[in-house]
Amino acid sequence: MSGPVDLKADVAEILVSEEAIQERVRELGQRISDDYRGRNLTLVSVLKGSLPFMADLMRAIDVPVRIDLMEVSSYGGTATESSGLVRILKDLSASIADEDVLLVEDIIDTGLTLNYLIRYLRGKNPASLRICTLLDKPARRLVDIPVDYTGFTIEDRFVVGYGLDYGELYRNLRFVGVLRPEVYSGGG
Ligand code: PRP
Predict the structure, then answer these.
(1) Which of its termini does the chain have fewer beta carbons within 10 Å around, N or C?
(2) Nearest CA to ligand 1 atom 8
């Protein structure tokens, strides 16, 4: 990028407001708490995009939880297209055997990342495995993913904010939005 980045000025449109996100996270946290009462819940989140969602969601859950973090790289090709390649950059730090695992993602796009992760985590023998995603973009799905908890279903647009990046920036926006076209043509 050439000049300094002006985070908010680069946003063309807000798709999901900060208030809408917070309200939905509260609802999801309540549902998850009801569903997992009396069980051994471990939240596994996938860095880096899921960081804000995970941080808010875990505090909206009122049953005991353990947390673990993985980091995978799925966008080998370009900044806006998934390559289908999944590489584990950071693995689980503890066993999930016999744990009720809830995988927390920021967005499901092609589904290739989650498809890989689901098979990987099932191989660790959890008692159960469910999926929670803040955003779902079904128009781009290449593999079928059973999603148990969805924050928002969105149209096929490249989104940033609340964890989601373009060129590693914009993750700290409090809402989910779309960038102005000039931002993408300027390189990322
Ligand atoms: C994003 C997102 C998902 C994946 C979804 O991660 O967090 O893990 O892409 O895309 P898919 O359904 O097409 O596989 P990304 O690789 O951009 O890493 P990041 O979370 O560090 O930004």
Answers:
(1) N
(2) 113
Backbone angles phi, psi at 141, to 5 degrees: -65, 130
The answer on pLDDT for 44 being more than 50 is: yes
> Do the beta carbons of residue 175 and residue 158 sit within 8 Å?
no
**61 domain-assigned:** yes
* d(C-alpha 45, C-alpha 71), whole Å: 8
User: Which ligand 1 atom sits closest to the C-alpha of 71?
Assistant: 21
Give pLDDT, residue 42: 98
State the Cα–Cα distance between residues 128 and 122, nearest whole angstrom: 8
Global model pTM greater than 0.90:
yes
Per residue in 157-180, is it b (16+ CB within 10 Å) or e — as a string?
A: eebbbbbbbbeebbbebebbbbbe
Query: Could you say which of 109, 136, 148, 156 is catalytic?
Result: 109
165 is catalytic: no
| 32 Cα: distance to centroid of ligand 1 (angstroms) | 23
Structural domain total, the chain: 1
What CATH number is attached to the domain comprising 107?
3.40.50.2020
Dist. CA 169 → ligand 1 center (Å): 14
